């Protein structure tokens, strides 16, 4: 965190939480800060969304992933054709489409768009499907 600026970020390194005394101090400070004027706790995803407009593009891409994931395989449909009368989701995927699905999931997790648990679930579903091919 920096003093004297409008916005500040408190970055707590994960390895510092390995020491119980550090955990206690951090929890105490956070509890004391809750509810104070001009103090807001946000998720990492919300933080990035507010400071990086390109994250909006990533959220748009993730919306495509969510809406076009094939439920039994976990793969994202590589081609979706939409017109006024129907939506067609092309059911075949090439190796690069599979790689795009995996990379998109990993990227969404790294950006804080989805949780690690959801990312692992989605990737595991794809890998389980690939073992049946």
TrEMBL record:
A Pfam family assignment: DUF3131
InterPro entries named in the record: DUF3131
DUF3131 domain location: 57-132
Record's protein name: DUF3131 domain-containing protein
């Amino acid at each position: 965190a920096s003093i004297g600026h409008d916005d500040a970020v408190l970055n707590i390194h994960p390895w510092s939480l390995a020491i119980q005394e550090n955990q206690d101090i951090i929890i105490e400070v956070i509890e004391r800060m809750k509810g104070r004027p001009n103090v807001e706790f946000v998720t990492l995803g919300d933080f990035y969304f507010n400071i990086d407009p390109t994250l909006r593009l990533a959220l748009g891409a993730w919306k495509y992933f969510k809406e076009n994931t094939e439920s039994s395989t976990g793969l994202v449909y590589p081609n979706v054709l939409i017109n006024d009368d129907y939506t067609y989701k092309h059911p075949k995927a090439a190796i690069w489409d599979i790689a795009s699905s995996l990379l998109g999931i990993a990227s969404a997790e790294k950006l804080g768009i989805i949780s690690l648990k959801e990312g692992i679930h989605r990737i595991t579903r794809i890998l389980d499907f690939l073992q049946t091919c």
